[in-house]
């Protein structure tokens, strides 16, 4: 691994650690995140991990560009992957149903798995949280089985209901709030993902692992889920 430093703002550096998305990279990204926080201390404004990069936003009143680069070099010196087993395992209930997942049936036909097969395959394994973005509490997770990989919709929807579970390429995610979106929707979760009382306003953070637990309609409603069919959402 040979990290590259890119300037993306007067007070921001982008560290590119890898060129391809791979779950095996996450221990390195987590280790780099920890070392950078320690190296920058109070001069760090924000640190944003993603699939292959880390965005370092620092305080210009405390550091100049050369000093920031020096701290990056110190943090990454002899870096080793974080294998301490600190990642959390989260289980998120999902009601997989065509009434709230308009692409579920089409995905079943395209993959040859049928609706039941898509549900079984999608919920069979845990997913790595690679990054947070787009909206508070929106976690980009992966990688889904190749047979479930689906390109984004050509025309994004103006409104996607909160809790909607979708697939885009080999990523999967849940919309925490009502928002525009172009992912293929296959179900809905009753779990509240965005909470102002939580650290980072999100129930999950990069490095967490998430497993989706299929539930029936009655359990979905009992947990507070909104079962309004997708086609009648405003």
TrEMBL record:
One of its GO terms (molecular function) is 5-oxoprolinase (ATP-hydrolyzing) activity. It comes from the Bacteria. Residues 3-204 form the Carboxyltransferase domain. Its EC number is 3.5.2.9. It is an enzyme of class 3 (hydrolase). Keywords: ATP-binding, Hydrolase, Nucleotide-binding. PANTHER family: 5-OXOPROLINASE SUBUNIT B. This is 5-oxoprolinase subunit PxpB. It comes from Stutzerimonas zhaodongensis.
